[in-house]
Write a structure and sequence with these properties.
- The complex is a heterodimer of chains A (200) and B (240).
- Chain A is mainly β and 200 residues long.
- Chain A has one helix at 21-24, and strands spanning 49-57, 67-72, 97-101, 107-113, 118-119, 125-126, 130-136, 143-149, 173-176, 182-184, 187-188, 198-199.
- Chain A is globular, with a radius of gyration of 18 Å.
- By secondary structure, chain B is mainly beta.
- In chain B, strands 3, 6, 11, 12 and 13 form a 5-stranded mixed beta sheet that branches. In chain B, strands 5-4-9-10 form a 4-stranded antiparallel beta sheet, with no helix packed on it. A two-stranded antiparallel ribbon of chain B has the order 1-14.
- Classes of the chains: A mainly beta (200), B mainly beta (240).
- β12 (198-199) of chain A pairs parallel with β2 of chain B.
């Protein structure tokens, strides 16, 4: 039986390359259907509907037109749509996952809901956050970061933000636009204002 | 652990990531301005990292795993079967995992609008497919063997033939995008993307093996490719 073979390690990552769009984010431009969209919204989802948008830049400050971004998040009550989270609601249609590609000017945008607080390994609440994975040509492995929200008082007590030097926390904090349910966060893959990426 | 509401049986050792390329691999020119300069910040996994998107059969249509039947006619090229198991680090099959693939056609040309390599497009081949691993972790595609193609990284640079794969697994930190190569490709020593993986044994895990036993007579050669994702049992066998 094949299952008895213990592998000598995991399969290494390779870049998503420049040509993933027709397979992973066709969005009507190719003869292939989308498994995912840039929205996590479903008709029955509760919570505050928000848009998160921004641009992706490389180390020379040039917009990155061929990134793929994926988000993973809890629902408004802080539950994940994964049976491994025993608090998950089995009948809810909210999945908590979305994917998009950047456009020619490096723009991305997600439509989603504001997640609730999720416990850390000690059971203490983390501030509301979304996990973000960044894939692209030139990136041999995707990078993990987090999106926090500028209008959350819990940020100051968040155990993960506490690991980040204070002067870099802004790279993880999406800023609410006045009067609109829209948050902005630019990503910088390299340089002085480089986005904080996590070793997870 | 976060309490009894969360009964996770898997751990994801950060050490396993040593198999991956470093972000900066200067021979791969595109990595120079896109790799972070600052070290990644280590952190404990929380529920957010330990859970992950669950997508199953509703995501995949009948026939999505056969890239040779998506158009009016059959694509040109060498028909092949690519199959194997999605596994965890202990070797157990990972069931119900979405596997997405995309690739060049038999001439080494991608349907992507930005690929201007002067090789023909094939009106009967898009080059995209997806499937879900079964209860034992098994997956299977039917496709056309992709061609090698030139790229601008350095003088006379050619990518070895490969199929791109995207796999989910049990958690957001098992997410894997990789490339499957074909055995004994003469381009291996010259490819900076393949060689961005520092360990020779790890590189070998990106190379499929020819599978005569599952080759279909009079129809298609078969290649086997196991995809090993992060994830170990939280209580290792040696402790039992």
């Amino acid at each position: 039986m094949q299952d008895s073979v213990k592998p000598d390690g995991i399969t290494p990552s390779q870049t998503v390359g420049p040509f993933f769009k027709y397979g992973l984010t066709p969005t009507g431009d190719y003869a292939w259907n989308d498994a995912f969209t840039s929205s996590t919204l479903t008709p029955d989802v509760t919570g505050d509907r928000i848009r998160i948008e921004g641009r992706v830049f490389d180390g020379a400050g040039v917009a990155v037109p061929d990134c793929m971004l994926e988000i993973w998040q809890a629902d408004a009550q802080g539950r994940f749509a994964d049976p491994q989270d025993k608090r998950a609601l089995p009948n809810a249609s909210f999945r908590g996952f979305a994917r998009c590609g950047t456009d020619k000017d490096g723009n991305y945008a997600f439509e989603t809901i504001k997640p609730g607080a999720v416990p850390d390994p000690d059971g203490k609440p983390q501030a509301p956050h979304i996990l973000l994975a960044v894939f692209g040509r030139g990136m041999l492995r995707h990078l993990y970061t987090r999106i926090y929200f500028s209008d959350e008082a819990g940020n100051s007590a968040d155990p993960v933000l506490a690991l980040v030097p204070a002067d870099r926390r802004a790279t993880l904090t999406a800023v609410r636009e006045a009067g609109k349910p829209v948050y902005r966060l630019d990503l910088r893959l390299q340089g002085d204002d480089e986005t904080v990426f996590f070793d997870v | 652990m976060a309490g009894e509401e969360f009964a996770m049986t898997f751990i994801y050792p950060v050490d396993s990531n040593k198999a991956h390329p470093l972000p900066l691999s200067p021979d791969y020119k595109s990595s120079i301005k896109r790799a972070p300069n600052k070290p990644l910040i280590p952190m404990r996994h929380t529920l957010s990292e330990l859970t992950g998107p669950v997508y199953g059969h509703e995501t995949v249509r009948e026939g999505d795993n056969d890239l040779t039947t998506q158009h009016a006619g059959e694509p040109i090229g060498e028909r092949i079967i690519v199959h194997g198991h999605v596994r965890d680090e202990d070797g157990r099959g990972v069931p119900n995992s979405l596997v997405e693939i995309w690739q060049a056609n038999s001439c080494g040309r991608y349907v992507h609008v930005r690929d201007q390599h002067p090789a023909p497009l094939d009106p009967n081949f898009t080059g995209a497919g997806r499937t879900v691993s079964d209860a034992s972790g098994y997956y299977r595609f039917v496709t056309i063997k992709p061609g090698a193609y030139p790229w601008g990284n350095h003088h006379n640079a050619w990518r070895p033939a490969h199929i791109h794969l995207s796999v989910f697994g049990y958690s957001f930190v098992t997410r894997l995008v990789t490339q499957m190569y074909f055995p004994n490709d003469p381009l291996f020593p010259f490819d900076p993307i393949f060689n961005s993986v520092p360990d020779e044994k790890a590189r070998a895990r990106m190379v499929s093996s020819f599978d005569l036993e599952n080759t279909k007579p009079e129809w298609a050669l078969c290649y086997r490719f196991d995809i090993v994702l992060r994830g170990k049992n939280a209580t290792p066998m040696e402790n039992h």
